[in-house]
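Please, structure for the following, as tokens.
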Amino acid sequence: MHANILRGDLKMTAESIIPLWNDCLGNSFPLDDRLFHQLSLAGGMDEKAVFVSRYEEEGPVSGVILAKLARREASGTARPAAYISFLFVSPREQGKGIGSQLLEAAEGWCKEKGATSIRLGSDYGHFFPGVPFDDSPQSRATIAFFSQKKYAKQAIEMDLITDLATNSAFGPGSEDDEKMNAAGVRFTLCAPSRRAAVSDFFARSFPGRWEREISEGFSAGLRDEDLALLARTEDDSVIGFARLCCSDSPLLSPGLYWRNLLGPNAAALGPIGIDAAYRGAGLGLSLLRMSLGTLKARGARNTVIDWTDLDRFYAKVGFAPWKRYMEMIKTLEA
């Protein structure tokens, strides 16, 4: 029987997508209602298209793909960026060409919208920064599938992990206080009175994705205590940040997407950044250590830093690779 590829609705198909996802990926990337609905609402200004495979119009879903088109810049002149957020097919239906049909439908939609290239993962409100990449036969087959479809391999990104309860590689010390005092800054947490300064900081230092994520995060429930800051002692202006996330945080950060694999009191850190004018003085490492100390004081254990290639840097504070992803991109023909 030939499968039908139909345009779907992300929210309406949740009952079908979540069990199908877990049938395919649940051992490595367990999906639940909370995460799915948080990410299905993320990037509200982006266009999204879901295509599903069904043998009958109202029958069970055997495969699904989510394509996204990032909103244009304010100037309106930038070409839209397209992404495939995820693609998976029921293990019982693989090998029948369904994945190829779904990908063809999504690519066709991206072309119609004017995109000139498509990235796998790394979209705003992403599930993955790239294609999950390990030594399993399934992973090798997935990479081979996309390579055959003319997606070129790029860099490898990683999620890193450590258990803060047993981690002896970090600990805020007197050198951190000395560095901050010399730079005229101090470590603090966000507060309602600091949100304007936070907004100014992101607009000045990290305009674009991080600015948008934090702004929309506050609107979606990001707590002030889940944003660590470096602020100038003189005027309380912000010059650095680190996003924190604990098991009781109302808004999941990417490091806690797969929290069901991490045990009790799991946590996440990232992104993290320092204003360019203050780099080179070791403040980033001090901010990192003090942020980890904050998480440890909250009882955090397994803690993840997501989507990075700076594994050697984070190894200085006891982090080791946990998951890997292959960035892949395809140039679309006119």
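The chain is about 30% helix and 30% strand. The chain has a mean pLDDT of 92.
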